[in-house]
Write a structure and sequence with these properties.
Strand content: 5-15%
Structural class: alpha/beta
Organism: Neobacillus rhizophilus
Protein name: 6-phospho-3-hexuloisomerase
CATH class: Alpha Beta
Domain SIS: 29-172
CATH architecture: 3-Layer(aba) Sandwich
Shape: globular
Number of strands: 5
Pfam families: SIS
Strand order of the largest sheet: 2-1-3-4-5
Number of domains: 1
Number of helices: 7
CATH superfamily: Glucose-6-phosphate isomerase like protein, domain 1
Oligomer: single chain
Radius of gyration: 16 Å
GO molecular function: carbohydrate derivative binding; isomerase activity
Distance between the termini: 39 Å
Helix content: 40-55%
CATH topology: Rossmann fold
């Protein structure tokens, strides 16, 4: 198969996956983000990169948003939301964050393959991205891609779609957001 044929198949896989995400849970996540005083986002590995891109767009909208673990990230408080991106929902460091957030009575949300996971059970909102787990487990979800690529690609598009929904609810246009774009590049 050629590179472009692989790309075409990847797009088909992502399209099938996005089509299975629950709209009601997505709306609950959007509402919780808009209700929160501050938004904290965490993820490990490639999922973490997708999470960082989400925080950037939240900041462009004027929301008080942070990547967990950065030196300028403030403390999480009761009126805040922690959004975790984790395919397995079992990454130890992310489980610890979810447990800490729950102990503070902050809202916890997860975007995951496994809403029945430890982080999923701790979460107030769980978005299921139906994709093949990274390693080992059998799955009904087939992909030509290695490891967690389908989850990570869908995660990026899902987060971008979430941004569009928040923009719609806030009546924001891209031009306003561009005014908050980095200018020391």
């Amino acid at each position: 198969m050629t590179t472009l044929k692989y790309a075409t198949e990847i797009v088909k896989e992502v399209d099938r996956t996005i089509g299975q995400i629950t709209e009601e849970d997505s709306e609950r996540l959007v509402d919780r983000i808009l209700e929160a005083r501050k938004v904290f986002v965490a993820g490990a590995g490639r999922s973490g990169f997708m999470a960082k891109s989400f925080v950037m767009r939240l900041m462009h909208m004027g929301l008080d948003a942070y990547v967990v673990g950065e030196t300028v990230t403030p403390s999480l408080q009761e009126d805040d939301i922690l959004i975790i991106a984790s395919g397995s929902g079992e990454t130890k460091s992310l489980v610890s964050m979810a447990e800490k957030a729950k102990s503070i009575d902050a809202t916890v949300a997860v975007v995951t393959i496994s809403p029945e996971s430890t982080i999923g059970r701790l979460s107030d909102v769980a978005i299921k991205i139906p994709a093949k787990p990274k390693a080992g487990a059998d799955s009904d979800y087939k992909t030509i891609q290695p490891m967690g690529s389908l989850f990570e690609q869908t995660l990026l598009l899902y987060f971008d779609a979430t941004i569009l929904r928040i923009m719609s609810k806030k009546g924001l246009e891209s031009g306003v957001m561009y005014g908050r774009h980095a200018n020391l590049e």
